[in-house]
Amino acid sequence: MLGRFSPQRYSQCFKTFVKTFEQARFKSNESIRRFISENTETGGQLSLTPEVKLRLLTSNCRFWRERPELWPFDDPYWAIYWPGGQALSRYLLDNPDECQGKTVLDVGSGCGASAIAAKLCGAAHVIANDIDEVAAIATQMNSELNSLEPPVCVSENMIASQIQGVDLILLGDMFYDEALATSLHTWLDNCVRTHGTRVLIGDPGRAQFQSHDIRGLLRPLVQYELPESVKEENYGLTCSRVWLYHPQFFK
Predict the structure, then answer these.
(1) Is Transit peptide tagged as a keyword (predicted)?
(2) Over the stretch 30-78, which tens digit does the pLDDT of each residue have?
(3) What is the Cα Rg of the chain in Å?
(4) Between the CA atoms of 247, 244, 142 and 31, what dihedral angle is there, to the nearest 10 degrees?
(5) How far apart are the C-alpha atoms of 45 and 24, rounded to whole Å?
């Protein structure tokens, strides 16, 4: 059968396949955007960054009460504005020099709040990295809500990858699992020592973070008291901090 295809015919079929694939992906993205619009609520006003609008899963939304098995995607971490991400975004907005003119990578970007904060602060280039492809679409929608061009969204796992040209790495609420914390520690240490990357971490003091070895290599920059509604949603966590990770400070 392949012998019947001329190079021109093969090229034409390949282009048709690519066009069909792109159309299917566009339709898929459009359906996900519609689902997000219908099943989230524009919020953020009661967070640490009321000036940033986000589409979030709230108590007014259907799936706040619906059976979890009816949710059609992976767990919607992108639909929650986690307290570490709130602190990190607040810190950036209060200290725009951290981002201005720089290339920023937001790892585990979720709803995209920290990436959006970086863009609002004048970052030259922003990459939002989350392995959930739905998070990328949510980030694009949230950027549009804030009248911003969306950041570059990358769904591949960038932890342990070699990165160059990144001035600042942001991590909010990523130290919730010991194995993940350990892989992050190794990767961040390489980024700092090899490329001199600046690393900011937002965390509300979860046990896995407090007890991990990386905790000894962090310098606290700021602490925020969480709004009452955020405290209630996060099982009694009361504060969230931003930390600077820079091992040479401790040599």
Answers:
(1) no
(2) 999 999 999 999 999 999 999 999 999 999 999 998 888 889 999 999 9
(3) 20
(4) 30
(5) 36
Cα 136 to chain centroid distance, Å, stands at 8
| Number of CB atoms found within 10 A of residue 82's CB | 24
Burial 111-132 (b: 16+ CB within 10 A, else e): bbbbbbbbbbbebebbbbbbeb
Report CA-CA distances (Å) from 227 to 34, 44, 76, 133, 239: 30, 11, 22, 30, 9
In whole angstroms, what is the distance from residue 162 CA to residue 184 CA? 13
Listed residue (204, 188, 205) closest to 196, CA to CA:
188
Q: What is the pLDDT of residues 67-79, one digit of tens each?
A: 888 899 999 999 9
Q: The pTM is what?
A: 0.86
Homologous superfamily in CATH for domain 83-245: Vaccinia Virus protein VP39 (3.40.50.150)
How far is it, in rounded angstroms, from Cα 146 to Cα 54? Answer: 8
b/e sequence 20-29, b meaning 16+ C-beta within 10 Å: eeeeeeeeee
- Let me know: does 41 contact 55? Beta carbons within 8 Å: yes
How many Cα atoms are found within 13 Å in the side-chain-facing hemisphere of 75? 2
Stretch(es) of the chain classified as CATH 3.40.50.150: 83-245
Amino acid at site 137:
I
